[in-house]
Amino acid sequence: MAQDPPDASDDDQRLVTFIVGPDHKEFSIHKSVVCARSPVFDKALNSEFKEGKERTIVLEETEVGVFKVVMHWLYTSQLPRFRKTGFGAEKKEQVVKWGPSDLKTDEEGNTLELKWDYLMSNAYVFAHLYDICDLRKDINSAFEKRFEYDSEDIPQPSSYPYNTTIIRVFENVPYDQSSLCKTFALAFAKNWHPSAGTDTDTALFENLQMPPSFTHMALVQMARIRQEMEQARSGKSGARRVRW
């Protein structure tokens, strides 16, 4: 549900300036919109500190593209739609200007992750840092749909994310309290198979490059899935289940 239009006569609807990224790109957002969504920003902007007096928040570590996702959600309560550029009907919609299967690569051309995964996972970490609870829920739901191939608006080249995406989330949020961490582990457990694994997947078990918390969660889920399959084959019910 979109936010109500701001009332310019209300002091809480005055604009707040966000200075984002190393290039200090400025964004203006209504104070009430920010404060209603984030207790952290609410406290900062209603204080006697510099942020409150100047109505300015500096986010040098936040990428501009990630902040645009957050800003879009703040005003619309929806994540932006990600479609390929050039679709005639889509030009009238607010969309991100790159294709859904675009990849982020390193200097040698190796694939790191999907751009969609990159933006969404970083927006999730941002939402964790600034306690934007509903944004975290919406991003988790979007990833669940992506892994279940259940949305036209979300890229679907694989049924679980690249290791780069997994590492980012597990290293920046408390995994035992994060729904997205559990979603990643379950998707990997359901869809990974050693005969079809890529070199980056193999690193999970051979090179120990993944966070131990993810490895543990994925293995627990694999054990649970195997147990349920064995129960189904034997026709048994009520057996002890593996839990988190």
UniProtKB/TrEMBL annotation:
Q: What is the lineage of its organism?
A: Eukaryota, Fungi, Dikarya, Ascomycota, Pezizomycotina
- Where in this chain does the record put each BTB domain? 14-83
Protein's UniProt name: BTB domain-containing protein
InterPro entries for the chain:
BTB/POZ_dom (IPR000210), SKP1/BTB/POZ_sf (IPR011333)
SUPFAM superfamilies given in the database record: POZ domain (SSF54695)
Q: Which domain of life is it from?
A: Eukaryota
